[in-house]
Predict the 3D structure of the following.
Amino acid sequence: MEEETKTNEKKETIEKLKNFFITNSQFKEDRKNFFLYKRELINKKNNKKISLKSFSIQTKFYKDYVFYKMFCKHLKQLAMDKGLEPYFLTLTKEFNLEGKNVYESIDYIKEIVQIYRQALREIIREFQRNHDILFISVIEFNDNLFFHLHAIIFINPLFEDKFLKILENKIELFSLGYEKQFEKIDMEKDDKDFKKSCEYLLKTIKRASQNMEYAYLLDGTVNVLKYKLITHSKTKINKKMYFKLLPYVINDKKFKDSNYTQKDKKFLDIYQYLFKNTIIKNSDKSLSKSKLKKLLKTYKKHKILIFQEKKETEKDDELVELQNRILIKRILSCNQKNELLKNIDSYINDYVDFLRNFFSKKILMNFRWRFNSLKDVLKKEGVKKFKSSLESILLYRSIRYIYTVKTIIYIKNKRKKWEKVYDSSDYHWKIKRN
């Protein structure tokens, strides 16, 4: 009887957790769509409105699946050029939610996810000191929210023993010996095994792209637990850059018939084309016309030039004020001390996530530090003192400027001359007036 009640309690906790994650994701989707509903994107040059589609979590995962499936193949190509071979790695830590309520379970799962991330980071760093390594990894969960890590790692087979020694040390250090798998992916006959391994690695985002409820669940876990679903070796063309460049490249004759639903080969061709022909320059200073001409002459062989300039702009008072009112309204509606203590972290995380688009990392850290000191006021002096201190502690009032990255894209036209096709400073958000 005791075992039955324990299993039933565990099932209830898992269901509550799932509902919590799904609700969080639905709130995020609604909030983004509300943002799009309340604002319009304007082109400053011609004052035209840019038509925008509503945000969908499921569509996001479909695009992720398309990109990472192609990225795995690109990683294989890079590995072959360096003489590296693929291995499949699985790490699993003992996991038990018995006797834990929802909030205790969230903290417990957060710890386990952080252990996976830290363990993989240390394995890669230690091996990378002396040898080449490429990787792509995913942290996923089963129906019982049992979290584990999968990774495809490319190393030189001559140094397999050295990698295994590092792996065993980290497994012992982080207590990851519950279930381990490390095996070579056979590449001698054909790449069928590699394709199967990629499909297995990406099965969660594929399922999320086909099932709306699972998409909310997966996105909610990532939001609440604050981790990256997929991590991989650094690359010149990341996901964001790829989808930004794709509309301009598809107009090329070579890719004119390509679209999101066609075979992976064309996507890989586009990605390889972008990887070989794109140069990215980062700077803290704006380019003068003479410097720009020199820069364009320097990269004659390339077909795409991306210039990213970090610059200061005036803050959008209305936008931050709106989010501030939402935060205060949510907290003012909460009069129970215990309820506030439980939810304050999610309120702060939502607030900081919103501000991430507008402020630098140092300022965000300052926000978190100030909010944590505000939590101490709540614990020691109660709800009234906490609410009265809230408005005075909000840092945004003293900030006059925020950091943004200005992106300019130049592409060679048919006459082999550089043409500016995109400038992020040409666009701005405007709040709709009812």
Observations:
- The radius of gyration is 25 Å.
- Residues 239-314+403-431 form one domain.
- DSSP finds 14 helices and twelve strands in the chain.
